[in-house]
Write a structure and sequence with these properties.
elongated; Heat Shock Protein 90; Rossmann fold; alpha+beta; single chain; nine-stranded mixed β-sheet; 639 residues; 4 domains; Ribosomal Protein S5, domain 2; six-stranded mixed β-sheet
Length: 639
């Protein structure tokens, strides 16, 4: 038995919005099934909750489920649930979402937007998932009866100007949405949504972790034999590990899930399982890999965290949840309070998501710190795989600088076989040492053999050996660790024996050296003015004749090369030439200059000293051919 049909008309603005929804909201039309299954899951959740809180509600909750029915002859796809259902008034209010207030304002914003992606973002904020059905159907029929009522409601629309509402009897509790599908059309992006394989694919991708079973009759030939045709088949696994207490999940289950989402054959190095409650609820299951992926440093490398909303898959590679320097982290974040229509653009500016991101980052860094504390051997292997990318965070993430510095593990002159943490370095610092000394270079051999190391080695000062390209940047930008500033031994003045300031003899010797070289230093500055901005006596050399250093705030030659390789225009940089006043070559040059020796020979020697110092630090000669010719001539004259 049924009553008369009532036809209701959408407002003009709503008709415009509905057309935008149908044609613009999703680039992937498969999403329609995700939306309808999510609505059905919500209805089951509501019935379950209401049955527990309302003792007068007489409903059967022993087998709550979602059923998908594909009818090839009628070209219909039905999504059915035995959930809470709706009354007539609720149908008009809830299914007529697009008729609510705010439509005019939304349309105005969309018209003002000149960016298609931005327009889709605005639509996504409105919450119109049900109407995605019209992307694939030319007519949608909804039948529903609310639990605790006798009368059902039939709603139908072609997605244009009107919809009809009709009271009907004899409907079961719950809701069924029947889509009268348009023909498959590859040019229009319409797949064959009646094909069993396609339905399974969509459910597996987007709704596999829905807590309620999603069933569909097994079609002939889909199972092990013809006798299985017509039997109900559950399409989703319902195994959302992140929603289960940690003590109920085995390490084998964690490992299997990690391998499934990461396509990694190894077990993860660390698992982070967390649940946040309060104003914004979410669950997260994150993994730290044991092995770096091949594309970790590729320009197109993406973060590995998936976003779900109430177990419904929303997007892969959600960069709003994890900073770039933690792009190796794999896993899932399942938020409870987001719209299914959320977009990347909205996520980037959502305060709640930003709060989740901050919390996740701290959890990840804490997990890495715990690994460092409790499993030094495992941490050493982990740092070897991901240390370089973690150090990018020292440049990108100022909020977590202290936590990241605690994780840094670097080679040093203390032990050639082992790396050291900054905390360990500070514990070994000499009395009166204020700075953490470091030197960057292409590799350990280049750094260890650098002339800059000589005085530090001779006096027993430990120096960090930093050989990753990112070290050039962070070490110069991070101000200090535990109150101790970072000091490149290739920059600025070096005074490794401050007690000399009170030693009369030391002061007298220093004054004599300055007097002895008073004429040579200005001459060298003039002679080498094309290459250096200053020539001075060195306190950092013990065996080498000379070295090249920078001022305290100069960029390093390696960093200069990096910037130029990226196409950045930089002014020419000149550095400082330091001379070892006790080296025989330097004393001979001083004596020859004082005796007005042959000027061309002095100039050649000066150029050779500069070129040798440049080569000793791993630099590039400005004119290798000239250097080779000068060296050959000087060697010839010496024989």
């Amino acid at each position: 038995m049924s009553s008369g049909t009532e036809t209701l008309e959408f407002q003009a603005e709503t008709r415009q919005l509905l057309q935008l929804v149908i044609h613009s909201i999703y680039s992937n039309k498969d999403i329609f099934l995700r939306e309808l299954i999510s609505n059905a899951s919500d209805a089951l959740d509501k019935l379950r909750l209401e049955s527990l809180t309302d003792s007068t509600l007489d409903v059967d909750t022993s087998d709550l489920h979602i059923t998908l029915e594909a009818d090839q002859e009628q070209r219909t796809l039905t999504v059915r649930d035995n959930g809470i259902g709706m009354t007539r008034d609720e149908v008009v209010e809830l299914i007529g979402t697009v008729a609510k207030s705010g439509t005019a304002g939304l349309l105005e914003k969309i018209k003002e937007s000149k960016d298609a992606a931005a327009a889709q973002s605005l639509i996504g904020q409105f919450g119109v998932g049900f109407y995605s059905a019209f992307m694939v159907a030319d007519r949608v029929t909804l039948r529903t009866r609310r639990a605790g009522t006798e009368e059902g409601t039939l709603w139908e629309s072609q997605g244009e100007g009107t919809y009809t509402v009709q009271a009907v009897d004899g409907l079961p509790v719950g809701t069924s949405v029947t889509l009268h599908l348009r023909p498959a059309d590859s040019e229009d992006g319409l797949a064959d949504y009646l094909a069993g394989w396609k339905i399974r694919q969509i459910v597996k991708q987007y709704s596999d972790f829905i807590r309620w079973p999603i069933r569909m009759e097994r079609e002939q030939g889909a199972g092990d034999g013809e006798e299985t045709a017509g039997e109900p088949e559950t399409l989703n696994s319902m195994k959302a590990l992140w929603a289960r207490p940690r003590n109920e999940v085995s390490e084998a289950e964690y490992s299997e899930f990690y391998q499934q989402i990461s396509h990694d054959w190894q077990a993860p190095a660390e698992t982070i399982h967390m649940r946040a409650e309060g104003t914004f609820e979410y669950e997260a299951l994150l993994f730290l890999p044991a092995q770096a992926p091949l594309d970790l440093y590729s320009p197109g490398a993406k973060p590995g965290v998936q976003l779900y909303v109430k177990r419904v898959f929303i997007m892969d590679d959600c960069d709003a949840l994890m900073p770039n320097y933690l792009r190796f982290v794999k896993g899932v974040v399942d938020a409870h309070d987001l719209s299914l229509n959320i977009s990347r653009e909205i996520l980037q500016h959502d305060r709640q998501i930003q709060g989740v991101r901050r919390h996740l980052v701290k959890k990840v860094l804490r997990a890495v710190k715990d690994m460092q504390t409790n499993n030094s051997e495992g941490y050493e292997a982990f740092w070897g795989q991901f240390g370089r990318v973690l150090k990018e965070g020292l440049v990108e993430d100022r909020d977590n600088t202290d936590a990241l510095l605690e994780l840094v593990s670097a080679a040093s002159t203390h032990d050639p076989e082992k790396t050291t943490t900054l905390r360990e370095y500070v514990a070994r610092m000499k009395d009166g040492q204020e700075a953490i000394y470091y030197l960057t270079g292409e590799n350990r051999a280049v750094v260890e053999n650098s002339p800059h190391m000589e005085a530090f080695t001779a006096k027993g000062y430990e120096v960090l050996i930093l050989t990753d390209p990112v070290d050039e940047i962070w070490a110069a930008q991070v101000p200090a660790f535990d109150g101790h500033r970072f000091q490149s031994i290739a920059k600025g003045q070096v005074d490794l024996d401050p007690t000399d300031d009170g030693d009369a003899q030391a002061q007298a010797d220093k004054a004599q050296r300055e007097k002895d070289f008073a004429d040579l230093l200005p001459w060298l500055e003039t002679t080498l003015s094309e290459h250096v901005k200053q020539v001075r006596l060195s306190t950092r050399l013990t065996t080498s004749a000379a070295c090249i250093v920078g001022d305290t705030h100069d960029i390093t030659p390696t960093l200069e090369k990096m910037y130029r390789a990226m196409g950045q225009e930089l002014p020419p940089f000149k550095r400082i030439l330091e001379l070892n006043p006790t080296h025989p070559l330097i004393t001979s040059l001083r004596q020859a200059h004082a005796a007005n020796a042959d000027e061309p020979a002095l100039v050649q020697t000066a150029e050779l000293i500069y070129g040798s110092a440049l080569l000793a630090e791993g630099g590039d000669l400005p004119d290798p051919a000239r250097f080779t010719r000068l060296l050959t001539e000087r060697l010839t004259h010496s024989l």
